Amino acid sequence: MAWGGPRLDHGRRRELGQSFQDGGRHYQQVRPGYPADSARWLVPQGARDALDVGAGTGKFTELLLDLGLSVMAVDPSADMLGQLAAHYPAATAVLGTAEATGLPDAAFDVVTVAQAWHWCDALRASTELARVLRPHGTLGLVWNQLDTSVPWVHRLSRIMHAGDVYKPGHRPLIGPEFEALEDHVTHWQDSVTTADLMELTKSRSYYLRAGEATRAKVLANLDWYLHDHLGHGPDEELALPYLTLAWRAARA
Q1: Alpha-carbon separation of residue 185 from 38, 140, 166, 232 (angstroms)
Q2: CATH of 10-149+162-191+234-251 given 3.30.70.360, 2.40.280.10, 3.40.30.10, 3.40.50.150
Q3: What is the pLDDT of residues 5-44, one digit of tens each?
Q4: Model pTM score
């Protein structure tokens, strides 16, 4: 899903988001984590309490815990939160959404939304997250993207239908409750095998909502590209380039 693409209407956003309701164990196994640098940049000095919204299986929650924060994790999927609770028991897992967390006013110093803001109604979510933030608290938005400036990765992303297109100067939509939006980019690499890439493709929203014929075509094209065209072996370790794009804004 490209966060920089056309804005989705509410119905379409919900339809696509539903594809992540199940499959928490697979998501936890195959999706990359995030570089620690992105969390260190987002979290304000002196912060104690963090809320990770759309936390999924806890990929970003882990970094907040590593910084010594008290973390509450919210997600609409009980399946995803089950994985989060199993892997990161120090966090408190709660069912909810960015638009309706059900949490108290002014309870957090920082709220993060990693790989999920494009599934949210940005203006409604901004109002809700400003409510649960303390005065001058920080909203942090994070996306992992394949580094499509690398030619082989650009073609890979097209085959995977990853939708990752980096647009310098893009600003995510946030509500008037926030000000002083800043951005940060981290370049890093994830070590994967071609089998890992096949499984990663299966965790993408395009694949999850596709029919069997489309799924088979995607996997066949990926198999040809990785093994025949690029000549990699199934157990060969590859360095997959990523960008982690982060924005932070202060509660006005």
Answers
A1: 8, 13, 11, 29
A2: 3.40.50.150
A3: 334 454 444 444 444 444 455 555 556 789 999 999 999 9
A4: 0.84
Take residue 171 and report the two structure tokens written for it. 């600003």
Neighbours of 194 (CB within 10 A): 19
Amino acid at 26: H
List pLDDT tens digits, range 35-50.
Answer: 999 999 999 999 999 9
